[in-house]
Amino acid sequence: MAWDDKIEFMSEKEIKELQTERLIKTVEKAYKSLFYKKKFDEVGLKPSDIKDLSDLKKIPFTTKDDLRAAYPFGMLTVDKNDIVRIHSSSGTTGKATVIAFTKKDIDTWADYVARCLYMIGMRKGDVFQNMMSYGLFTGGLGFHYGAEKLGATVIPIGGGNTAKQIRMILDFKTSFLHITPSYALHVSEEIIKDGIDPKALGLKGLIVGAEPHSEATRKKLEEIYNCPVFNSYGLSEMNGPGVGFECEYRDDPHIWEDGYIIEIVNPETGENMPDGEEGELVITSINREGMPILRYRTKDLTHIKKEKCKCGRNHKKIGRVVGRADDMLIVKGINVFPSQIEDILMSIQEVGNNYQIVVDRKEDYIDTIKIRVEISKKFFHGKLSELKNIKEKIQHSIREEIMINPEIELLEPQALPPSEGKAKRVVDLRKI
Ligand code: DLL
What we know:
Layout: H1 5-8, H2 12-30, H3 34-42, H4 64-69, E1 83-88, E2 98-102, H5 103-119, E3 127-130, H6 138-150, E4 153-155, H7 162-172, E5 176-179, H8 181-193, E6 205-209, H9 215-225, E7 229-235, E8 240-245, E9 254-255, E10 260-265, E11 279-285, E12 296-302, E13 323-324, E14 329-331, E15 334-336, H10 338-346, E16 351-362, E17 366-375, H11 388-402, E18 407-411, E19 426-428
Parallel strand pairs: 3-4, 3-5, 5-6, 6-7, 16-19, 17-18
Antiparallel strand pairs: 1-2, 7-8, 8-9, 10-11, 11-12, 12-13, 14-15, 16-17
Bound molecules: 5'-O-[hydroxy(phenylacetyl)phosphoryl]adenosine.
């Protein structure tokens, strides 16, 4: 039995028919937004040109920059008063990418998440501890509504405060945790420090997502907690979580094709690539009312799997995300663009011309970010130790922007190797 037997076990043919019907409607709707009207008109495309799935590639791509340019409401297809909530991609302050939801969108989204949770065995009576942050980030509220819709008991604790998390797991006999994989490793260490064996918690499952992680990390978590660990994929531009989720076989996420059309394109040329080949994932939402997005370049590198799943669902699966086609970093589950850091550094007059961002992982699970900054010649008088307040100023400004506290290492002018050609500003030492 599934949450939605009819949709989940559709044949490939039925999925295609439903996608075609929803794509046509979505394109008609999208054309009502200022943004898509302009985009379509620019290439001389009319909504009536889209008659079936093979016409999808006629539609121009939508990018994160497009979303920023349409900020805040340039992509709406409904009246602004019909928007009941907004969310935003994690990490960015300033001009973020904003996603708007109607009441119906919230309900549809909750239904996708409930479907995912039901698929992995969660039922009324289960206790779901939501250890992802609430707020603009979609991981908190997205799962909250889905788990409530399913009828589970939700503990909306959010991220952090590990001692309290452990107390809640014990007191309420939590059965499922929703958590980032890196935090799950950290929490296990703290549980062990308290003299408790994580295996003894009796958890039925961990739902992990929002950041890349390896199969080895999953195996390690399964061993530590003695329960299955499910990979959950999603992105704010497509509601948030609930886009892709692993079934009981835990062999990569199914993408819910009644809501999302997926393509893989060559990240350089934008050309479509066959199933099985690695490229950039492009997603079209076909079940959103307030702000549908067509052919969104996710920048996530993966492939569409060719094999059918043993669970009987025909909704296609994507491989584990192996990296990004842009320079976005995910540090402690927060999306960070190096350009955000550069903007801050370059606005501080004591900062020289060169800097380097070093991302690392301590004890297997704690992401760290260190920024090595050259001091401007004008402000350097022979001793770095005299520049403590500059260091604090840089640290504070960057923390305000990216919501992570970086370590700052001040360097003498020209201490870093000069860039010859394309500067290599980011060193990522993590082994995912
Ligand atoms: O991270 C939504 C989410 C919340 C997904 C909770 C799963 C669980 P954003 O903040 O917009 O939304 O970040 C989206 O995170 O494009 C990927 O690069 C990355 N990402 C998300 N899930 C996974 C995953 C949420 N399971 C960006 N594996 C995406 C690898 C992931 N990367």
